[in-house]
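Course assignment 3, question 2. Fill in each field.
Student: A.L.
Task: Predict the tertiary structure for the chain below.
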Amino acid sequence: QVQLVESGGGLVQAGGSLRLSCAASGSVFINAMGWFRQAPGKQREFVARITSGGDITYSGSERGRFTITRDNAKNTVYLQMNALLPEDTAVYYCRASRLMYFTSDDDWGQGTQVTVSS
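Answer field:
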C-alpha cells in the first residue's frame, strides 16, 4: 500500500498562485500520479496526471494555468497553480496508481483545502 501526504493548500486571493505537493511512501512502484479536486456540492473531478515516464494529461479547463511535475527520485508530484479563480476553490486530492492510468485500486491522499477569495 502507498501512503500519500499532500501539502501546500491554503487561502489565496484571485489571481494568486499556490503549489501543491504530494509525497508518496511505500515499497510499491508508482506509475501514474495525479490530482483531483472536489468542490462543495460537486463530484470529484480530474485535474492533471503524470506518469513515471513523464506523460502528462490535463483536464481542459485548467490547461495553461496549472502545471503538474514530478520528482521520481522523491516519489513526489507537484501541482503549480497560477492565476487562480474563485471556482478553483476545492479540496485537492492526490492519487497514485501502479499503472499508467487510474483504476479502482488506486491510493488517495487525505486532501488539502484550496480556497480562492474574490
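Instructor remarks: The longest strand covers residues 18-25. DSSP finds no helices and eleven strands in the chain.
Grade: pending
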